[in-house]
Amino acid sequence: MKGQLLGHYRVLEQIGTGGMGEVYRARDERLARDVALKLIRPSTAKDADRLRRFEQEARAAAALNHPNIVAIYDIGMHDGVPFIVSELLEGKTLRERLAGGPLSVREASDYGLQIAEGLTAAHDKHIVHRDLKPENLFITKQNLLKILDFGIAKLLHPETGNTPVIESLTTQTRTGSVLGTVAYMSPEQLRGKSVDGRSDIFSVGAILYEMLTGRRAFRGETDVDTITAVLRETPPEVTRERASVPAAFERIVNHCLEKEPQERFQSIRDLAFALQNLGAGGNGVRWRASTFPVRNVFLATLAAAVLLGCGWLVNAWIHGGATSPDYQRLTFEQGTVYSARFASDGRSVVYEASWNGNPPRLFSTVSASPQTQQFDLTDAYLLAVSKSNQMALQLHGFHGTSLDYTGGTLAQAPLAGGSPRELLEDVRWADWDPSSPNELAVVHTVDGRSRLEFPLGKVLYESPGSITNVRFSPSGDKIAFMDHPVLWDDRGVVKFVERSGRLHTLTAEWESEAGLVWNPKGDEVWFTAIDAGYNRKLMAVTLTGRTRVVLTAPQGLNLQDISPDGRVLVSVENQRVALEATTASDHRPRDLSWYDWSVVKDISADGEWILFEESGEPFEGRYAVSVRRLNGAPIHLGDGSAGGLSPDGKWALDVAASDPPRVTLLPVGPGAPQDVPVAGLEHVQNGSARFMPDGKHILVNASESGHPVRGFSLDLVGGKPHPVTPEGVAAFRISPDGHYVAAHGPNASLVLCSTDTGAVAQIPGIEPGDTSAQWSADSTALYVYHFGEMPARVFRLDIHTGKRTLVRELEPSQRAGVVSIAPIVMSPDASRFAYSYYQNLSTLYVISGLK
Q1: Is residue 805 part of a domain?
Q2: pLDDT tens by residue, 824-843
Q3: What is the distance, to the nearest Å, from the Cα of residue 483 to the centroid of all Cα atoms in its chain?
Q4: Following DSSP, what letter does each residue of 658-706 receive, concatenated?
Q5: Closest by Cα among 333, 269, 345, 335 to 563
Q6: How does DSSP classify residue 716?
Q7: Cα-Cα-Cα-Cα dihedral sign, residues 417, 418, 419, 424
Q8: Residue finishing a domain among 698, 723, 748
Q9: Cα dist from 227 to 134, 186, 300, whole Å
Q10: Are 482 and 559 part of one and the same domain?
Q11: The domain containing residue 26 runs over which residues?
Q12: Residues 124-139: pLDDT tens digits?
């Protein structure tokens, strides 16, 4: 096979063999990447049963998208022989790892949880693996476990859980023989009965047993003997084989290995929850490590501060109220807390978090205990909890570079459990009226402007930027909020509005603000903000505008809620924005971060230079326009917000956050800066400046006095700004031929604006949350990616037909705590990519005694 071309995949070498065929390393000559190519054996290529199973593997696995499941890229036929193309993994199988002896308790727990998390994604789509064994579990060099070979998976009917959707999805041969490896198969599977997710749970139990003891749970000299052991025998106690295994872990394994399905864990989520809580010791600190290893001193310090620095954190806080505050830690995993609220009893806490690189989920806990419960809700962002314990949720939204979501649907769900009821589309924030059980104040976008409405339909305040952190006063007669002048920017001021619509501005503009609540008396608004840098302080402001500091910390604070008795719910955050780049020949991303806030803005036409904006602590909160080669040191060009590079790569655009605005050309090499005339524009958005194809004009997002933001074309040598998009539509990228501008419409959706006619057109095939990384060189397609997706998938989207073609998957070298990958920039030929990712490692605390 070496050297043969199958479609656009050229075989390089054989790397494995299995029961159904061979696996080869191959080169995808279209996307210039190495892949794994699985080819069915020619001797069985005409066996209808094997072909059906082979095709089934592709269908089952391709339907899944999870970091713990191998990704399927393609399927094809070569001379009548089918093949599957998947991601190429580097590492070893669990079987190879077990050849060196049993795993540590920590490793077994971590790998077991990763298996459970991958199976959760499969079971959610009614897919049961049915052939789990150490040979089908792969450990990458990054210590990530991947589930392989869904070759005999069974797609269950969503309602009955047993009936196959179509005949071809059976996992038995025509003679009725069972498939799989008998030592890891459940009793019901060996008996030829119908199976569900509990069969996989049995297999996981057998694998956990072997990881802990180094011996198979069920052993026999022949397959018949092994089958008998599975059906009738109980394996030796784990602690007898290895005394150091905690009793709690042995109970989990035994519960998985119950002979009757109804006696086991009833869902893979239950097993995952048990494994997640396994590591909690007497002090509540978990010993479970992150899925991804920490590789440098900075990140090690960052992780340690979140996971192990509880005592030091409390003792080191240098400012508080008159009394010594008490601190109670509620969360112990590694990851991000997105939002949290007290329930009406003031003791229970509901919060949304993403732990250990997994998607965000809703949890609840009682503040007196660290034990948590997970809600059976996905894709739901917590906005508020009412006095009657009704949750206001945002469904189907997406987030940018912050923790809040946008573009979602407002929904209501009881805290006690139940499905959400959708209420209103395109809502970003909401809060319950404390004087009415069913009334909500909402924020949504209309014609490019952010509106605060209460009751629904009555506009109390309108902003050209964004309104966030909406909270009612305890009496319900006032609504406080944060007003940000620019969308996606956390700079802003604190305001409140009366029910009558009378507006009050309480503070000056903060460099960064997030998190706002009224105190129980209603005479102060508490919030977290900072006037320079990123480590926000806990502040309080009276209704007359007198501001004071309540609490500072070595890490940043994000105020979540205040209970009626004055206890404060905060998340303590370690934040950074890292910059990475990758080429077609790179096996892993290159870290190009300068300090701790490196935001990529552009890449040169030849893919050699990266333009980015650095605003880490060494710059004291200032924006610094910087460039660097892929293999070079960073160069500071000037202070300001970076825009784009000129077509010839000699100039970088800089937008100064000043009044009046200033746009400057900064030379990448020798030369002097040059100002660009911006007469008539009141405000220019940070980082929005881009060169147009002729190199003589630039595109900026700006506003004229009293008007919403729109895209303008500016001549480098002067002249009146020329609008290129309608009001409320922000320009993003212009096509190489100059005829189209990719822009974000009022609802953040990606649209096309014609520079010839000014018309706005929807892009066929566009999806909510899509944003653009680049135009194709021929102006016929946009490269798009989805905010908040992990890993980030970059697609080529034909602007005329809507056809989407996957070009590249981008995943940061660090996964835990990564909130988003954005922005992404790339060369027009899709050979080089650079991206920033926002990482927020946070811990939830309840603080008592603050005044």
Answers
A1: no
A2: 999 989 999 999 998 888 99
A3: 25
A4: -SS-EEEEEESSSS--EEEP-TT-SEE-TT--EE-TTSSEEEEEEE-TT
A5: 345
A6: T
A7: negative
A8: 723
A9: 18, 10, 47
A10: yes
A11: 1-88
A12: 888 889 889 999 999 9
